C-alpha cells in the first residue's frame, strides 16, 4: 500500500524516475452493456488484473479512451448504439492507475450535451483529468499537459468522425472536432513556443472492425507528423491495426480495445503503448494485450507490430 501511494504522488506531480518519464496509452474503455453485467456480478475492481496494475503503477501517466458517458443523466440521443456508465466506477479506474481519460469520441455525447458536461465533471471529481471535451469547441480542443519533467509532454485529442444526429455547434458543450488545419496549427504553435516539448496526437477515427487504415488516414497522419507531432496514438476501430514508422515517428492507427465486451478473434488483440521520455529522447514500445472484461498482458513480453 505504501508503494501505491508513492507511485500515485509521483504520477500527480508528473515527475519521472532517473531523469525520465513513463507514459502509457490504452484503447477503448466501455463500462456498459456486457461490461456493466460483469461489474454487477463481480464489482468494478474485477476489470483489472495484477499484471495490468503493476504496469500502470510503474508509469507517471496512464491515458485511456472512455467510450461512454459516465453520468446519472439519462437523455439518450437518437443513434444506434447508446451507452452510459455509472460515475462511481470512475474512481475505480483512478484506483487502478488511470490518470487521464479521453472524451473525444463518438460515444461521449450518447446522453446529450448535459450528459457530456456531467461526465467531464465526474471525471474530475474522481481525480482524473478529462481530455477532448469542454463547454465550447475552443475549450474541448485545448492541449493537455501530461507531464512537465524532464520535458513537457502535450496531448491533443480529436474526433475525426461525423456524429449521429448531433449538430456541430462549436459554441456549446461538445467534444474536440476542429478542422484538420486548426489541429495542425495547434501542433505548430506548441513546437514554436517550446521546440523541446513532446506533442502526442490521439485521433478517434477509421473504419470499425478493419485491420488497415485507409489511404486518406495515412495522408492526414503524415501531415500531422510533418507539422511537428512526435507520435500518433489512435483508436475507434475496435481492432489492432498496423504501426507505421514515418520520419522516425510512430503512427499507431488503432491500438484496439482495452476494457470491452467484444470477444471475437478480430476484436480481442490490442496493445498498450509505452512511451519513455528523457531530456533528449522519446521512445515507444508496444505491449501486446488480450482485451476484454479483464485485459491481460499477452505472454508478458514487449513486441513491435510490423507495418504491412
Shape: globular
Q: Span from first to last CA?
A: 44 Å
Give the strand tally: 16
Derived from helix and strand composition plus strand pairing, the structural class reads alpha/beta
* CA gyration radius, whole angstroms: 18 Å
> Helicity level, as a percent range?
25-40%
Number of helices: 8
Structural commentary:
The structure is a single chain. This protein has eight helices and 16 strands. It has 308 residues and is α/β, with parallel strands linked by helices. The strands form three sheets. Strands 1, 2, 3, 4, 13, 14, 15 and 16 form an eight-stranded mixed β-sheet that branches. It has a six-stranded mixed β-sheet with strand order 6-7-9-10-12-11, covered by helices on one side. The chain has a two-stranded antiparallel ribbon with strand order 5-8.
Entry summary:
The protein has eight helices and 16 strands. The chain is an alpha/beta fold.
Write the layout of secondary structure elements.
Elements: H1 2-13, E1 21-29, H2 34-42, H3 50-57, E2 61-66, H4 90-95, E3 100-102, H5 112-125, E4 129-131, E5 133-134, H6 137-140, E6 144-147, E7 153-159, E8 174-175, H7 180-193, E9 198-204, H8 215-226, E10 231-233, E11 243-246, E12 249-252, E13 257-259, E14 269-277, E15 282-290, E16 296-302
Parallel strand pairs: 1-2, 1-13, 2-3, 3-4, 7-9, 9-10, 10-12
Antiparallel strand pairs: 1-14, 5-8, 6-7, 11-12, 14-15, 15-16
Amino acid at each position: 500500500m505504501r508503494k501505491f501511494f508513492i507511485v500515485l504522488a509521483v504520477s500527480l506531480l508528473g515527475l519521472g524516475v532517473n531523469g525520465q518519464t513513463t507514459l502509457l496509452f490504452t484503447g477503448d474503455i466501455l463500462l456498459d452493456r456486457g461490461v456493466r453485467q460483469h461489474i454487477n456480478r463481480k464489482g468494478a475492481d474485477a476489470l483489472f488484473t495484477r499484471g495490468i496494475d503493476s504496469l500502470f503503477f510503474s508509469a507517471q501517466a496512464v491515458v485511456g479512451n472512455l467510450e461512454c458517458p459516465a453520468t446519472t443523466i439519462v437523455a439518450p440521443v437518437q443513434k444506434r448504439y447508446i451507452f452510459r456508465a455509472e460515475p462511481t466506477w470512475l474512481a475505480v479506474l483512478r484506483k487502478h492507475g488511470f490518470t487521464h481519460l479521453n472524451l473525444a469520441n463518438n460515444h461521449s455525447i450518447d446522453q446529450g450535451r448535459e450528459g457530456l458536461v456531467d461526465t467531464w465533471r465526474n471525471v474530475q471529481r474522481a481525480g482524473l483529468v478529462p481530455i477532448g471535451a469542454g463547454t465550447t469547441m475552443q475549450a474541448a480542443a485545448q492541449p493537455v499537459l501530461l507531464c512537465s519533467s524532464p520535458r513537457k509532454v502535450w496531448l491533443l485529442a480529436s474526433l475525426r468522425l461525423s456524429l449521429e444526429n448531433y449538430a456541430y455547434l462549436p459554441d456549446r458543450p461538445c467534444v474536440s472536432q476542429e478542422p484538420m488545419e486548426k489541429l495542425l496549427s495547434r501542433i505548430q504553435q506548441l513546437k514554436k513556443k517550446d521546440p523541446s516539448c513532446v506533442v502526442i496526437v490521439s485521433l478517434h477515427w477509421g473504419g470499425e472492425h478493419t485491420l488497415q487504415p485507409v489511404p486518406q488516414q495515412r495522408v492526414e497522419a503524415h501531415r500531422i507528423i510533418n507539422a511537428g507531432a512526435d507520435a500518433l496514438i489512435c483508436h475507434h476501430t475496435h481492432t489492432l491495426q498496423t504501426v507505421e514508422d514515418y520520419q522516425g515517428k510512430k503512427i499507431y492507427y488503432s491500438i484496439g480495445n482495452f476494457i470491452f465486451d467484444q470477444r471475437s478473434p478480430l476484436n480481442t488483440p490490442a496493445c498498450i503503448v509505452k512511451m519513455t521520455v528523457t531530456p533528449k529522447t522519446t521512445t515507444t514500445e508496444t505491449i501486446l494485450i488480450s482485451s476484454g472484461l479483464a485485459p491481460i498482458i499477452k505472454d508478458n513480453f514487449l513486441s513491435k507490430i510490423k507495418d504491412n
